[in-house]
Design brief:
Number of strands: 10
Distance between the termini: 52 Å
Oligomer: single chain
Number of helices: 8
Radius of gyration: 20 Å
Strand content: 15-25%
Structural class: alpha/beta
CATH superfamily of the largest domain: Tetrapyrrole methylase, C-terminal domain
CATH architecture of the largest domain: 2-Layer Sandwich
Shape: elongated
Largest sheet: 5 strands, parallel
Strand order of the largest sheet: 3-2-4-1-5
Mean pLDDT: 93
Length: 238
Amino acid sequence: MAASLSAGLSYLYLISTPIGNLEDITLRALRILKEVDIIACEDTRRTKILLDHYSIKRPLVSFHSYNQDKMCRVLINKIISGENVAVVSDSGTPGISDPGALLVRDAVCENIPVVHIPGPTAFVTALVSSGLPTNGFTFLGFLPRKTGRIKKVLLNLIDIGKTIIFYESPYRIKKTLALCREVFPADTDCVVARELTKKYEEYIRGKITEVYEKINKRGKVKGELVVMLSKRRSLKND
């Protein structure tokens, strides 16, 4: 264990990593990544790109939705045995819409100290640049895959009075926006953010039907997407 980590204690570190631009990482995050005994990540290939960029060489293990039950126990046991473990997602903050949340739950149950090294989060980055109200919002993560379940979720939010935010895949964005157009009033403001912090970062703004038509005219949509919807016109509390 590196000397600068707390002596006598082993930790679970949640480390936020860039959502696109590799420069968007803190000095503290880089230091902890260099010092921990092992780094758990969704995709070792993607994490290796970041580590290679900063000349960091630490053991990597895969930790994703397909092996989360097994790996939660493995990682908890490593910490109990005296190793410091860092968890990163493919991009952004671990624990949001990924297995990191399950590991934190198990760590808390075992009285293992959990430390978050803060940094980028895609939905916050999108929201603050969207122009939509930020003083009240509901984040849904990823929507269900089935059409009926998506509609049920959206129908329950029609009168929520807050900005609605969710992640969507480029492969499903057209279908999902079509459902949003069916559920929400025509004057609902919509912003879709894509390729955040990258060269081709883009915000597509307008009423829900306008945004749907803009995206539907495109061939292949690229990049992970953040979708935001709002019926509120004021940025102040009502």
